Structures are given as C-alpha cells and as structure tokens.
Inverse folding.
C-alpha cells in the first residue's frame, strides 16, 4: 500500500500519517470555526447593518456559494501541488477576508467579505484528500470520517463560542459596535497560526512531498499528469455525480442548519442569543463522534460484505436524515425541536462520514477530482437550500421540503454499482492491508 498506515494511533505524532491526520483535522476545525463565526452573531449584525430578511438570505447564500468553485479547483490542486502546499496557501489567503469582515461598514462590504470567506470551506476537500493518501483501505473510512468530523465540529464550537467571546469582550467595557469586530478577529489569527504549523510539520504522502518525489522520477497516482487530468477523469464517472447529489443532501443540509439554527430558535421559540447559540452548537458538536461513527460503520460493513455494503449503509443513513428533518420541521415545542435536531443531525453527520468513506474507492487515479466534485456537491445543496428559503419565505416549510428531498436523494446512494473487476481489485488491496 505504498507506506499507507493500516492503523490509527491517535496518541502518536511520530509518523507522517498521524501528523497528517491531526494537522488536517485541526486545520479543518480552524477553517470551519472561521467560516461560521458570523452565523451566531447574526442577530447582532442584523441590528448593526439594519438587514432585511432578503439581505440575510443573500448573506447565507454567499457564505456557501463561492465554496462550490473553490472545492472544484482545490481537489486537482492537491493532485498537482500536494496537500501540504495547498492547505498552507488556503489558510494564509483565507485569513485575509476573515480578518477583513471585522472592518465592514455596510451591508455591501459585509456581503463581499462573507462571500470570500466561503473559500475556506474548501479545506474539507484537502483534509479528505490528505487522509485518503495516508491510510490503507481497512481504516481509510474511519480516518476520513474522524478527521472530517472533528474538523466539522469547528462550526458547532463557533455557534457556542462566538456569543461567549462577544460577551467577554463586552465585559471589558467595549461597546457592541466594536465588540463584535474584535471577536471576529480571533478566527483570522488562528488561521495564520495553523498555516505556519501545516507548512512546518506536514508532508504530502508517506514517501515525502510531491515535488521531491517527481524530481526523483517517482510516479504519483492522481497527480501523475497534472490536476486537470484528474478532474476530467472524475467528471466522466457517473458514481461521482450520484455522490455529488447525496452529499448535497447531507452536508448541504448541515451547512444550511449551521446558518439558520440560532436565528430559528430565537424567532420561533423566543430563546436568548446565548441559549439559541448553545442549542445550535449541539448540532455541530455531533460531528465530534457522529461522522467518525459513519466512517467506522462503513469500514466494518465493508469488511464483512464488500464494497457494495458501503452504498447500502449510505442509503439507510440519508433516509433516516430525511425522516428526522421532517420531524424537526413540525416540532411545536423547543424540547421536541431540540430532540428532533439531534436525531436528524446524528444521521446527517453519519451520512457525511459514510460518503467520504466511499470516496477513496471510486477512482484511485483521480482522487483529487473525485473528492473535489463530491465536496462541491455539499455546497450546491446548501446554496439550493438558501434559494429555496428565499423563494418560499418560510423556514418551517423549507425544512419540510428539504426533508422530502433528502428521502429522494437516498435513492442515488443505492443506485451506485461497481464492476466485478473493480470490486476484485479493491478487495485485493483490502486483503493486503489486513495482511500488513
């Protein structure tokens, strides 16, 4: 398996595989924290900029729209330049709009910075790419899901931490107009610090960095002929587009809920900003274990029943997400709404983990393209949900429609099939990993 790790040693940093695992989820965590730092402060920002419902909808759409394009590009960039250089560049450049949003003086400038901040959401693709090239088939699902889940938790932490950070700044005697700006500087500084760590301690694959390996004449799967060949190969694979839809149904819903949950609890149930932020944070914090659980289950069922079992599991999880989302949409009391959100959130995060537990097996020679296109599907789903809310003008109705869409999208998972030769090849790699 070209030096890929066959075990996950969580307490170890001595191997390049485990350094990549920990650095990738921490970088992803910081990026997601920065991406969603504005969301729990929207009730404050709404008053600061005198935002209308339509403008708030535009901001929510902008937050995830540009990520579609960047995710499509970032996968082939990983194939071409390697995940180390790509992640460092994204962290350093992404910190610019994150810091800049604190300087916004009106709706228009805030909207532009919010749009640019969406680029950091492409960090997910690099995280999944890096763990995919570092871990063998018997544990790659768990590695992908755990790194993504712990990184994803940054969105949930932002929901609970940003109101507390704002409160701490206000306790120092700073007024609201300056307080939220100071609070939003924190994630930008964290991104710059993480960029330095990634450049210093990460490497592209078990053998070293791509540039050095190519200089020695060593071929690299996926990045052998350049990133765009990887993208073209991935875009010609129908399985990629089916997973594009399913990921839109699970991760797209996750992004949408991150952006609207706090405001939903304030408007529908009359919660305070702090209480609503904590309730919304509980959804994001499920990623701490639920994504990893989805990937772990995918690895387990594959060990017993082969590659097709991964697609069956994904179908079950997305179906459960859709049914739980319908329950959440029709919950009339806060306690029921919270219970429903935790239930459908569990299925949502597990489905995200199960999706990227399947990604490394779609086309090993086009891994960057596959990861990028499917990752972009999540943001397409979030943008579509944002436009749906803007068109319907009713969040409860929007959630109901999204629940029905998720149920339908589950059928895409069950439609994914692999040839006998493909399954035999993957099984041989799997057996070799277990033998090691």
């Amino acid at each position: 398996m070209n030096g890929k790790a066959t075990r996950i040693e969580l307490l170890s940093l001595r191997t390049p595989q485990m350094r990549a695992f920990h650095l990738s989820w921490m970088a992803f965590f910081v990026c997601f924290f920065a991406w969603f730092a504005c969301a729990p402060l929207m009730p404050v920002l709404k008053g600061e900029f005198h935002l209308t419902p339509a403008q708030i909808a535009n901001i929510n759409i902008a937050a995830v729209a540009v990520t579609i394009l960047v995710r499509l590009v970032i996968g082939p960039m990983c194939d071409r330049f390697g995940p180390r250089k790509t992640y460092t560049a994204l962290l350093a450049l992404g910190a610019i709009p994150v810091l800049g949003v604190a300087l916004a003086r009106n709706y228009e400038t805030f909207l532009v910075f919010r749009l640019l901040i969406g680029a950091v959401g492409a960090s997910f693709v690099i995280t999944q790419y890096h763990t995919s090239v570092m871990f063998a088939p018997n544990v790659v699902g768990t590695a992908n899901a755990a790194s993504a889940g712990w990184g994803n938790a940054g969105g949930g932490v932002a929901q609970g931490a940003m109101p507390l950070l704002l409160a701490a700044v206000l306790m120092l005697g700073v007024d609201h107009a300056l307080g939220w700006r100071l609070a939003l500087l924190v994630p930008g500084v964290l991104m710059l610090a993480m960029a330095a760590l990634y450049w210093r301690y990460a490497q592209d694959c078990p053998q070293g960095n791509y540039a050095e390996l190519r200089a020695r004449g060593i071929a690299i799967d996926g990045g052998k002929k350049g990133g765009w060949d990887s993208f073209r190969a991935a875009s010609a694979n129908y399985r990629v587009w089916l997973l594009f839809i399913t990921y839109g149904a699970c991760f797209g819903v996750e992004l949408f809920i991150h952006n609207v949950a706090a405001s939903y609890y304030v408007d529908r149930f009359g919660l305070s900003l702090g209480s609503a932020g904590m309730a919304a944070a509980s959804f994001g914090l499920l990623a701490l274990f639920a994504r990893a659980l989805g990937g772990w289950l995918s690895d387990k069922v594959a060990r017993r029943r082969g590659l097709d079992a991964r697609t069956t599991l994904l179908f079950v999880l997305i179906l459960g997400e859709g049914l739980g989302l319908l329950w959440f949409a029709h919950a009339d009391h806060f306690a029921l709404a919270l219970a429903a959100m935790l239930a459908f959130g569990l299925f949502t995060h597990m489905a995200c983990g199960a999706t990227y537990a399947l990604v490394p097996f779609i086309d090993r020679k086009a891994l960057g393209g596959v990861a990028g296109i499917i990752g972009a599907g999540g943001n397409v789903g979030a943008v579509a949900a944002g436009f749906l809310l803007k068109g319907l003008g009713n969040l409860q109705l929007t959630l109901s429609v999204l629940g029905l869409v998720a149920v339908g999208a589950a059928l895409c998972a069950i439609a994914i099939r692999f040839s006998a030769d493909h399954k035999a090849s993957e099984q041989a790699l799997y057996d070799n990993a277990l033998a090691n």
Q: What stands out?
A: The domain at 16-208+224-435 is CATH 1.20.1250.20 (Growth Hormone; Chain: A;). The mean pLDDT is 91. The CA atoms of residues 141 and 156 lie 22 Å apart.
